[in-house]
Structures are given as structure tokens and as C-alpha cells.
UniProtKB/TrEMBL annotation:
Any Gene Ontology CC annotation: plasma membrane
Domain ABC3 transporter permease C-terminal residues, every copy: 275-394, 733-846
Entry annotated with the keyword Membrane: yes
Protein name, per record: ABC transporter permease
Membrane topology: Multi-pass membrane protein
InterPro entries reported for this sequence: ABC3_permease_C (IPR003838), Macrolide_Exporter_MacB (IPR050250)
TM annotation in the entry: 16-37, 268-296, 324-346, 366-391, 415-436, 448-471, 492-517, 729-755, 784-806, 818-842
Leader sequence segment: none
A GO MF term: transmembrane transporter activity
């Protein structure tokens, strides 16, 4: 049987190559998604500034949520705290007392931006300040100059110094806590490798005053005595600090102490890889199945002859599945290296967009290869199994009859699968619209669309026959003789035409849905944010924090109705507990009571915002209802840095999905954040005050402060949209890969379908048709195929876009520019015409007589 399989492949190069390409591309995409998932699961963060410390002691960023339920029904969840958990300086003496410890080095990071020639950061957001004491943990070594020992002295790392052209003995303007100051550069240090964050080193005394939390450090680097065993000492340190909310880290785990928020990126990678990997698997199975099924259908005469001379259905099944498995194995093997490269490239794009921190190490080992191979080989085997059952169950006489005019298509199995796909799509659509929101919406909406596409593909022959009947008269009326011939062909060949329509439907349906789904999400998010934004201007600072008395100064500016410091963080309800609380916790916003009380009175459901002083909180009304508390009640929370706090409820708020945040006093919340202070002030204008007048008034009031900037309402919206668009570009990128895959399948199928008609073209040539007439006829047919495919693809996309748009906005139509749809239509038509006319032209290059003898 193996010999027969190999021989049949030799004479079926067109179908062989088409199926091979489908398996190859699908496996490569799956392998790339598998690499992203493995990277997220492992979340390997190699240390950089702490690399020279064998052991690192840091705050425990893990938090066990309150248990929900009892006994076997109890639900235990763990969350990652959003803010850095710091440790007390006194813990250093405890660690130093462990046998085998040589000395302990505290590490502290704080905001510090070296300003360039134009007064802005040399590279915004990439620099941090540290004490020179911690330089040995990288280690950083001086390449010129000396260490900073006095206030007003700094050492720059070599990357920063090269960017601004600095040398030892020069000056640099640095934005640090309290304003912008000029520092003398005493030296330049180099770590010997590229670092994710550039470093500015201050004298130990000055660094102690600049850190956000007095008496606390970010981590301790532990240097060992000669001959000490890392594992043994680490275990003893863990025992010594177990009651201090601290963890002891070695190896690559040390990186999590340096990049505390990078651990959450691993979870995001898992979600992205799962969503798009699942969608890619669906598309791969769909594409391989359609390609292989078309290849088997084109061998109707061969299958009929084999049945007529005695071949059993089992033998045919073994032959077809054997061919598919050989192609699948070859395509999978060829896809391994490109899949690895594609995964690394995707990871690079994710870090480039700023969605994932570049400190994560890309991992793509054995398991993604196995998973991708299972999908590739499974798709090939499943498609071959279905095609072989169709070919093998037909009796020889019926098979010979069907080679002439294939008309039977709606089998009970096809009907059952089609209806089941529509039911599954309806269920997922309901979840998307009523339950799932945010980035996870794609996890249900994408599969829903592919299920609708599957149903349409199963019913494609009947739909194609119906639409051909509808288009027949317009084709004849406007197409001339080529249109007349094309309409006759379409009427006679509606069954094979359905095979060409299906990949066009899939490609256009996915493209329209995915792109407009994303543009709609962005537009809805922008509208919700704009509607919930109560500020008319914003005051920010290059130093990362603002002077405490600046809020009062802004409040006194003409035209200002209210001014409030603004701090964001997260917290977790502990008592009363919230059964619906997940690892995302509660959004917390720190504000100034006097400012919000004057301008945000409209959002108060009960209580008073001017009571937000000390340990108090204003809860969204729905959260207060879930907790069963009201104004005057007390609740226990865990803040973002792990600190427990008891708060008095002073108000409840009317909120929307976009602004469901609890309010706390800014001076209470800020010390428990990474920055340790408010980084902006929101300003509300008095009624009738124009935005331009408000901005002029604010600039005249705070313009003499270094680093302080004033911007209008659009600056807040722009910053919000920048974050939303970063996530959107990730979706565009991965969806683009799937669309390229679907387009390849479309071209594959069209080339196969056209090349199979060389006998028909030869007969046309023999009865007098010229090459030009045949080419024009095929161009008209390609137009018909494209029109039907685009129409069905539009229906597939609309099946989810319309209900989704109606659920999240006030319109039945998705948001987004019309040119996206027109470009998709244009690309579909161009690809269809080229993929049809190119093989037709190559086929017509041969003489007519040999063409008529070509096997089908």
C-alpha cells in the first residue's frame, strides 16, 4: 500500500503541493503561538542589575484571595499584587546573621530622568535612580571618574552618557523627586551588557532621601562567603524571614525581584497565545480539510475506476489517509524551524509595542513542537478520513455516474454538522455579548465566527447554486460572450465552484470581522472613557511626582472649580468578602476631597465626597451592594503593596463599566504605590470657562516650577488611547498572520480548481475558442466566484459584528472606516482573478490536442 501511495503522489503534484503548503503554514503558526504560551507559562525573567547576587530577598508579590465557599466547594485563588511589596531596612541584620552570608546590599529604585538638550528625557521611561551602594549587584564598574560621595553628584551608566554626550566632570539636568536639578557627573559606569533600564547612581545619603518610602527597600542582594552553598544558605534565609512577607530567590527567579510587574506579562502571554492559538488551530483544520477534500474530489474518475476493478472502501481509505499522513509529516517537519523563527519574531513585536516587557526570556522548547505537530498531523488525518469515507462509501456504478455531473451534496452528516456549528456559534455569541468583555471577548467571538464560517462552508454548494441563479442574468447582460460562457459554466459547475468560494468566504469573513471587531472595541473604549472623564485639564511633572502643596495652588487659579491629585492602584476586599472578586481586584483611585467634592457631585449616590480624609473610601454602588455595606460601615481591604487597612465608607457612587473605581484620599493611597506620590492633578473648570482660558490660567500659576506641564483634556484621552492602541496592534499583528494563512489557502484552492480544468480548456480550443476568449471567460468566472465568496464572507462577519455592536454601542453597525471593507473586497477580487487567470494562462500555453487527453 505504501508503494501505491507514493506512486499516486508522484502524479498528483498539484494537490500534493497545495496540501503541503496548508499543513506547513498552519503548523508554523501553531508552533509560534505555542512558543508564546510556553514563554508565558515559564515566565523566565533573567536578573540584570541583581545578577551578581547569588541570592535575592524581596517582598512576596503573591496574595491569597479570601476563600469563597466551604469544604469541597471552597474556592482558593491567588493574585499578583499590583504594587511593589517593599521590605524594612532592619531585615538586613536578620539576613546577615545567617551562616554563610558575607554581606547584604540593599537595593532601591526611584524615578530619575536624565534630561536631554531639549529639556525632555533622553529616552522617556527607561531610566531609574539607585544608590551607588547597589552598583556591585550587577556589577557596574567605573570606566572613568569616581563614585558619588556627596549630594549633587551622580554616576551615569555608559548608555545614558553616550546618548547625551556626557563625560566625568560634566553636568546633567536630572528630574527627580522634588523637581529638576543640575548634578555633577563624577563618573561613568558600565555593566558589560545591555540592560533593560538605564541607571543613574546617586550618593548613598542622597539616594536615601529620594526613595519613595523611607526606611524601606525594594530588595536585598546577598553576597556569600567563600565556599558557601547557595541552596543551603537560601533555605536558611527563607526560614529566617518567613514571617516578614519576604521570599528568597535564586537563579532566574531573581529577576522577578527586579522586574516585579513582568510576572503579570506572563499571564497576558498565556491569554493571547490561548486565544489566537485556538483560533489558528480552527483555521488550520478548516483550511487543510477544504484543500484535501478538493484534491480528493478532483480524483473522482480515479476513485471510481479503483472501485470498479475491485478496490474495497477500506483500501481506498488507507490509500487516501496514507497520502495525507505523508504530506502532513513532511509539512510538519518543514515547519519546525520557520515556526521557531516566527515565534521569536512575534515575541519581538510584542515587546516592541510595549505590551510585554523585554525582560522576559522567549522560550520555545519540546512541548510547542509536539502540540503543533499534533494539530498539523491531526488536521491532515481528520480531513483525509472524512474525504476517504465519502469516496469509499460510493458504489462503483454511482461513482462513475457522479464523475460526469456531481449533484449530491447534502448528506445527513453534513446537515447535522452544519446545524451543530450554528448552534455552537449562537451559544458563543451569547457569551460574547452578555458575559465576556474586554480583551477576552476575542476568545469567544473569534471561535463563534469560525463556527459560522464552518456552517456556511458545509452548506456552500446549495448557497452557491442559489447565488449563481441570482447572478446569471446580470452576468449575461453585462458580460457579453465571455459572460454568457461564464454563466453556462457556473450553472453546470456549481458544485466545484463551491469549493473555490469557500476559502474566499473564510478569508474575507475573518478579515472583516477581526478588523472591525477591534476598531469597534477601540471606539467604544474611547467613548466610554471620554464620557466618564470629569477633568478639563491635567497638570503633570517630569519628576514622576508633584509637590504636595501644588493641588492647593492650582485650586486658587482663576476659572478652576476643583483640583484633585490623581493616583491609581488596586486593592482586594477582605471583610466583608466579595464572592465575585477575582485576581484583578478593585480599581482604586486616589483623589483630593475638596477638589472632587466641588466638581464630581453628580456621581454621588449617597454620602459626601468631602469626607474623604484619612482611612476612608467611596465605593461604587454595585460593589457596596454586593458587600452589603453602606455609608458609615467599615470594610477591611488589602492594598496593592500587600498592606492591610480598615476603611470607613463615606459615600457610594454612580459608576459606569468604564469608571467603576473606588475613591480614596490620595495621601492615603499614594504611599502604597510604586511611585509613592501623585503623578498628576486633574483640574475641573468653572461653568462657562473656555479650555484655552483655563490652560492659560494654570500655566501662569504653575509655570515657574521645573518639570511641571499643563495640558488639556485631549492629553488624557490621548494617553488612554495610546494604551488601547498598543493592545489593538497586537491583535492586528496576530490576526494578520491568520489572514495571510487564509489567503494562502484561498490562492491554493483556486489554483488547484483552475488547473484541474485543462481538459475543458483543450476542448474549447479545439472547437475554435481563442486563448483570449478563454481568458476573458475565466476572468468573468473569477469575478462570479469572488462576488459570491465576498457576499458570504460579509454575512459571516455580520453574524457577530451586528449583535456585538448593538450590545456595546448605540448602533447596529460596527465602528471603523469604510476603506477597510473596500480594501478587503479589492484584495479578495484581485487575488481571486490572479489565482484563476495565472494557471489558466499557463495551461493555455500547451497545444489543444494534448490538453484534451490530460487525466482528470
Amino acid at each position: 500500500m505504501l508503494t501505491l501511495v507514493v506512486r499516486t503522489l508522484r502524479y498528483r503534484t498539484g494537490g500534493f503541493i497545495a496540501t503541503l503548503v496548508s499543513v506547513f503554514v498552519g503548523t508554523a503558526v501553531m508552533l509560534a503561538c505555542g512558543g508564546l504560551m510556553e514563554t508565558g507559562i515559564r515566565t523566565v525573567i533573567p536578573p540584570q542589575r541583581l545578577a551578581a547576587a547569588p541570592i535575592v530577598v524581596a517582598g512576596n508579590q503573591s496574595y491569597d484571595l479570601p476563600t469563597v465557599g466551604h469544604g469541597e466547594d471552597a474556592d482558593h485563588e491567588t493574585a499578583t499584587l499590583s504594587e511593589r511589596v517593599r521590605l524594612g531596612e532592619g531585615l538586613a541584620s536578620t539576613i546577615s546573621g545567617v551562616p554563610g552570608v558575607a554581606h547584604v546590599v540593599p537595593d532601591v529604585s526611584f524615578h530619575a530622568e536624565v534630561l536631554g538638550d531639549q529639556g525632555g528625557p533622553s529616552v522617556p521611561g527607561t531610566q531609574a535612580g539607585h544608590s551607588w551602594v547597589s552598583a556591585e549587584l550587577a556589577p557596574y564598574r567605573l570606566t572613568e571618574g569616581a563614585a558619588p560621595i556627596r549630594e549633587g553628584e551622580v554616576v551615569l551608566d555608559s548608555a545614558t552618557a553616550a546618548r547625551i554626550g556626557a563625560h566625568a566632570g560634566g553636568k546633567a539636568d536630572i528630574a527627580v523627586r522634588g523637581g529638576v536639578h543640575s548634578y555633577r557627573i563624577t563618573g561613568i559606569a558600565d555593566a558589560g551588557r545591555r540592560m533593560a533600564t538605564d541607571a543613574v547612581f546617586f550618593s548613598p545619603a542622597e539616594a536615601g532621601g529620594l526613595r519613595s518610602a523611607a526606611g524601606q527597600v525594594d530588595a536585598f542582594g546577598v553576597q556569600l562567603a567563600p565556599g558557601a552553598d547557595v541552596a543551603a544558605v537560601s533555605a536558611q534565609i527563607a526560614t529566617a524571614v518567613r514571617d516578614q512577607r519576604a521570599v528568597t530567590l535564586t537563579g532566574d527567579a531573581r529577576g522577578s525581584a527586579e522586574f516585579a510587574r513582568a510576572a503579570g506579562d506572563g499571564e497576558l502571554l498565556i491569554i493571547l497565545a490561548a486565544v489566537f492559538g485556538g483560533l489558528a488551530a480552527q483555521v488550520a483544520m478548516f483550511v487543510v480539510a477544504s484543500t484535501l477534500t478538493l484534491s480528493v474530489q478532483q480524483r473522482r474518475r480515479e476513485v471510481a475506476m479503483l472501485r470498479a476493478i475491485g478496490a474495497t472502501p477500506r483500501q481506498l481509505s488507507r490509500m487516501i489517509t496514507g497520502e495525507a499522513m505523508i504530506i502532513g509529516a513532511l509539512g510538519t517537519a518543514l515547519a519546525i524551524l520557520p515556526g521557531v523563527l516566527l515565534g521569536d519574531w512575534l515575541f519581538g513585536r510584542l515587546t516592541g509595542f510595549g505590551v510585554i516587557q523585554p525582560v522576559l526570556k522567549f522560550e520555545q522548547g519540546f512541548y510547542p513542537v509536539v502540540a503543533a505537530a499534533v494539530v498539523g498531523l491531526g488536521s491532515a488525518w481528520g480531513a483525509a478520513f472524512v474525504a476517504a469515507r465519502y469516496a469509499g462509501r460510493t458504489r462503483p456504478v454511482e461513482a462513475m455516474r457522479e464523475t460526469a455531473i456531481p449533484t449530491r451534496w447534502l448528506t445527513p452528516t453534513r446537515l447535522w454538522l452544519g446545524v451543530s456549528s450554528l448552534i455552537g456559534a449562537a451559544a458563543l455569541a451569547y457569551l460574547t455579548i452578555t458575559v465576556v468583555d474586554g480583551p477576552l471577548a476575542a476568545s469567544t467571538a473569534g471561535p463563534a465566527v469560525t463556527l459560522v464560517a464552518t456552517a456556511v462552508a458545509l452548506f456552500a454548494p446549495g448557497l452557491t447554486k442559489l447565488l449563481v441563479a441570482v447572478l446569471r442574468r446580470p452576468i449575461r447582460a453585462f458580460g457579453g460572450l465571455p459572460g454568457y460562457l461564464a454563466s453556462l459554466n457556473a450553472r453546470a459547475r456549481w458544485m466545484p465552484m463551491a469549493g473555490a468560494v469557500t476559502p474566499i468566504m473564510l478569508a474575507t469573513g475573518l478579515a472583516i470581522f477581526m478588523l472591525y471587531f477591534q476598531t469597534t472595541q477601540v471606539a467604544v473604549a474611547e467613548k466610554q472613557y471620554s464620557d466618564s472623564l470629569l477633568a478639563d485639564a491635567v497638570v503633570t511633572s517630569a519628576t514622576g511626582d508633584l509637590p504636595p502643596d501644588l493641588v492647593a495652588k492650582v485650586q486658587q487659579a482663576p476659572g478652576v472649580a476643583g483640583a484633585s491629585a490623581f493616583v491609581t492602584s488596586k486593592g482586594y476586599n477582605e471583610k466583608p468578602s466579595d464572592a465575585t472578586q477575582d485576581e484583578d481586584g478593585v480599581d482604586l483611585t486616589g483623589v483630593t476631597a475638596e477638589g472632587v467634592a466641588k466638581a464630581w457631585g453628580s456621581i454621588v449616590a449617597s454620602g459626601q465626597l468631602d469626607a474623604l480624609h484619612g482611612n476612608t473610601i467611596a465605593l461604587p454602588a454595585d460593589l457596596a451592594q454586593r458587600l452589603g455595606v453602606g455609608v458609615g460601615a467599615k470594610i477591611a481591604m488589602r492594598l496593592g503593596d500587600g498592606s492591610p487597612i480598615t476603611l470607613d465608607v463615606v459615600a457610594t457612587l454612580r459608576t459606569t463599566a468604564a469608571s467603576a473605581s473606588a475613591l480614596m484620599p490620595a495621601d492615603t493611597l499614594a504611599p502604597h504605590t510604586a511611585a509613592g506620590a501623585a503623578d498628576r492633578i486633574l483640574v475641573m473648570a468653572q461653568p462657562g470657562t473656555a479650555e484655552g482660558d483655563l490652560l492659560t490660567s494654570l500655566r501662569s500659576r504653575v509655570g515657574d516650577l521645573d518639570g511641571v506641564q499643563v495640558a488639556g483634556r485631549e492629553a488624557l484621552t490621548k494617553a488612554f488611547l495610546a494604551e488601547v492602541q498598543a493592545n489593538a496592534w497586537v491583535n492586528y499583528l496576530i490576526v494578520g498572520l491568520l489572514l495571510v494563512y487564509a489567503a494562502i489557502s484561498m490562492v491554493n484552492t483556486l489554483v488547484m480548481a483552475t488547473a484541474d480544468r485543462r481538459r475543458e480548456f483543450g476542448l474549447q480550443r479545439l472547437i475554435g475558442s481563442t486563448r483570449g476568449q478563454v481568458m476573458r471567460m475565466m476572468a468573468m468566472e473569477a469575478g462570479v466566484v469572488a462576488a459570491i465568496g465576498v457576499f458570504l464572507g460579509t454575512l459571516v462577519a455580520a453574524s457577530m459584528l451586528i449583535p456585538f455592536s448593538a450590545a456595546v454601542s448605540d448602533s447596529l453597525f460596527p465602528s471603523g472606516p469604510l476603506w477597510i471593507y473596500l480594501v478587503i473586497l479589492g484584495l479578495a477580487v484581485v487575488l481571486t482573478v490572479v489565482a484563476t487567470c495565472a494557471p489558466t494562462w499557463f495551461t493555455l500555453r500547451t497545444r489543444p490536442s494534448p490538453s484534451t487527453l490530460a487525466p482528470e
